Amino acid sequence: MQELHDAPLAPLTTFRLGGPATRLVTATTDAEVVETVQRADAEGTPLLLIGGGSNLVIGDKGFEGTALRIATTGFALDGTALELAAGEVWTEAVARSTAAGLAGIECLAGIPGSAGATPIQNVGAYGQEVSSVLTEVLAYDRREHRTVTLSGAECAFSYRHSRFKAEPDRHVVLRVRFALADEGGLSAPIRYAETARALGVAAGERAPLEQVRETVLRLRAGKGMVLDPDDHDTWSAGSFFTNPILDEAGFAAFRRRVADRLGADTEPPAYPAGEGRTKTSAAWLIDKAGFTKGYGSGPARISGKHTLALTNRGAATTEDLLALAREVVTGVREAFGITLVNEPVTVGVEL
């Protein structure tokens, strides 16, 4: 277990932003993770958990406390059951499970970050979510001071949300377990229209597993959503805002705002979200509010490949990034009456 003091955190995040931590501990076993958490809690020291750093916005002043980098490893297949240590690199785990002929997470290829972060956000893309195949999460419960096993149902998953996100200071994910499927080398049914078009199949059909993974990687790379140290469009947290979900009255008011601004013939994106609710597109809102690809003139700008990604062009500070995010939130609210919500976790700062 490595311990450093006044340690820079920016290199541990995909934004490459943020100040130092008072103490940075790198844990490579579950026991080291639990020991570090217990020590911080006993001392009353603030604790920041870091996996792949792909969902963090850390303030320029850094973090006054213990930053725990979870670098545990472990990839275990038993038939179609997959267990991953929290520190496993997610995109590598997807590649290995696909190579083993197992379907269920192939459309989640290329998502940066660690396996332990996937249940926290209920990570999803291109028609798949981890909640659909996750069976159990092994976690340390800081309230009960013991290791617990939570079923998928107990994780209380919803769109980009879970009990871990609702109670951010309670559970520390140690292991994640999935039930994948052997479909004879084929994928799960393709649910996402863009993926189906790229594969040349109809929605609901299957395609060769590796072809699906490679197609998703190409689609993501075209939007700057696959990490590349030489491409500033990937110096981001991926999608910075979640897609808004509106009730019937809210969506009706939104449609009126769209008609007033863009014309009566313009229909905004709309997707059923259950219980009389409708999901619309944050990327569409941002673009139609005037924040197009590449927007900005400073060191933090909207990606040149995707309006939903805010990026560090190489010399940005966290305050530069937040100023851009606030400008976008204000512009969308004024144009359409919808307040966007940030997806990344903010540390020491607020949007």
UniProtKB/TrEMBL annotation:
<dbReference type="InterPro" id="IPR003170">
    <property type="entry name" value="MurB"/>
</dbReference>
<dbReference type="InterPro" id="IPR011601">
    <property type="entry name" value="MurB_C"/>
</dbReference>
<dbReference type="InterPro" id="IPR036635">
    <property type="entry name" value="MurB_C_sf"/>
</dbReference>
<feature type="active site">
    <location>
        <position position="160"/>
    </location>
</feature>
<keyword id="KW-0573">Peptidoglycan synthesis</keyword>
<dbReference type="InterPro" id="IPR016166">
    <property type="entry name" value="FAD-bd_PCMH"/>
</dbReference>
<comment type="pathway">
    <text>Cell wall biogenesis; peptidoglycan biosynthesis.</text>
</comment>
<keyword id="KW-0285">Flavoprotein</keyword>
<keyword id="KW-0133">Cell shape</keyword>
<keyword id="KW-0132">Cell division</keyword>
<keyword id="KW-0274">FAD</keyword>
<keyword id="KW-0961">Cell wall biogenesis/degradation</keyword>
<dbReference type="InterPro" id="IPR016169">
    <property type="entry name" value="FAD-bd_PCMH_sub2"/>
</dbReference>
<dbReference type="GO" id="GO:0008762">
    <property type="term" value="F:UDP-N-acetylmuramate dehydrogenase activity"/>
</dbReference>
<feature type="active site" description="Proton donor">
    <location>
        <position position="239"/>
    </location>
</feature>
<protein>
    <recommendedName>
        <fullName>UDP-N-acetylenolpyruvoylglucosamine reductase</fullName>
        <ecNumber>1.3.1.98</ecNumber>
    </recommendedName>
</protein>
<keyword id="KW-0521">NADP</keyword>
<dbReference type="InterPro" id="IPR006094">
    <property type="entry name" value="Oxid_FAD_bind_N"/>
</dbReference>
<keyword id="KW-0560">Oxidoreductase</keyword>
<dbReference type="Pfam" id="PF01565">
    <property type="entry name" value="FAD_binding_4"/>
</dbReference>
<comment type="similarity">
    <text>Belongs to the MurB family.</text>
</comment>
<keyword id="KW-0131">Cell cycle</keyword>
<dbReference type="Pfam" id="PF02873">
    <property type="entry name" value="MurB_C"/>
</dbReference>
<keyword id="KW-0963">Cytoplasm</keyword>
<feature type="active site">
    <location>
        <position position="343"/>
    </location>
</feature>
<feature type="domain" description="FAD-binding PCMH-type">
    <location>
        <begin position="17"/>
        <end position="183"/>
    </location>
</feature>
<dbReference type="InterPro" id="IPR036318">
    <property type="entry name" value="FAD-bd_PCMH-like_sf"/>
</dbReference>
<comment type="function">
    <text>Cell wall formation.</text>
</comment>
<dbReference type="InterPro" id="IPR016167">
    <property type="entry name" value="FAD-bd_PCMH_sub1"/>
</dbReference>
